[in-house]
Design brief:
- About 45% of the residues lie in helices and about 15% in strands.
- The chain contains eleven helices and nine strands.
- Strand 8 and strand 9 form a beta hairpin.
- The chain is globular.
- It starts with a helix and ends with a helix.
Length: about 250
């Protein structure tokens, strides 16, 4: 039930003996642009507590249970984060969560306590890109505010600054394909999100082929515009804080 990507990384980890090194080597093989970092290098298992009290173990088993999820946990719970991931969050201009499976892709990173703490401390603009469609077995019947509420329940109320939601209608022929799988468009209930204390960026940002996906170019422009907006709103006195050690060396 795992994707090829998961199996490939697992195989590379066995070859190299270290997940961080495995990702580095995988990036070389696949000619990846950018840097891929794990949240933790520790061996963990993802488990879900369902609303009826049952526990489901294993990432690939969670969506198959057919039960509403109350929360997900890591076993063991107190695993250390990878330092380079913490450094990347600290130094980032923007942190973008999603799009992706809410409980089995986005959430597990936030369950690493040091990662969540770094997100709370970072000066980066923090955005959550809400999924366009619900995911059977994970977010059945979820509105956009339900996604945001789940993030807050797991990682704290101030984990994100903005939510990017799609307000573009999905073509009817595609809706039929999704309906056969039990999926439907995620309702952009903007007022409910704002009541949670999070700003909403509504936008037309989907790309339709045989499936509904976020348009990468539109999404990239939105993210960059939010970074520029934060720079414009940041007081100059805040920018003129104590210089870093490297800056002191240059000035001296």
């Amino acid at each position: 039930g795992h994707s090829f990507g998961n199996l490939f990384i697992a195989a590379m980890t066995q070859v190299t003996g270290d997940v961080e090194l495995a990702l580095q080597e995988s990036c070389k093989v696949l000619a990846v642009r950018g840097q891929v970092l794990p949240s933790s290098a520790s061996a963990v298992r993802l488990s879900a507590e369902c609303c009826d009290g049952t526990i489901v173990h294993g990432e690939s088993n969670i969506p198959l249970s057919g039960k509403s999820i109350r929360r997900v946990v890591l076993e063991p719970p107190d695993v250390p984060a990878v330092k380079s991931a913490l450094d990347a969050i600290r130094d980032a201009d923007a942190v973008v969560l999603g799009p992706g499976s809410l409980y089995t892709s986005v959430m597990p990173n936030l369950l690493v306590k040091e990662i969540a703490e770094a997100l709370h401390r970072t000066q980066a603009v923090r955005m959550y890109v809400c999924n366009v469609m619900t995911q059977p077995g994970e977010t059945d019947g979820y509105k956009a505010s339900d996604h945001v509420r789940a993030l807050m329940d797991h990682a704290g109320r101030d984990i994100i600054d903005y939510v990017l939601v799609n307000v573009e209608e999905v073509a009817g022929c595609l809706l039929d394909n999704y309906a056969k799988q039990g999926a439907c468009p995620v309702e952009a209930d903007i007022e409910s999100i704002e009541q949670l204390g999070v700003a909403v960026i509504p936008s037309r940002m989907i790309c339709e082929t045989n499936w509904v996906r976020h348009d990468p170019a539109r999404l990239a422009r939105l993210v960059l515009s939010m970074v520029e907006r934060k720079k414009e709103l940041t007081p100059k006195t805040e920018l003129a804080e104590e210089p870093a050690d490297s800056d002191r060396e240059l000035k001296s």
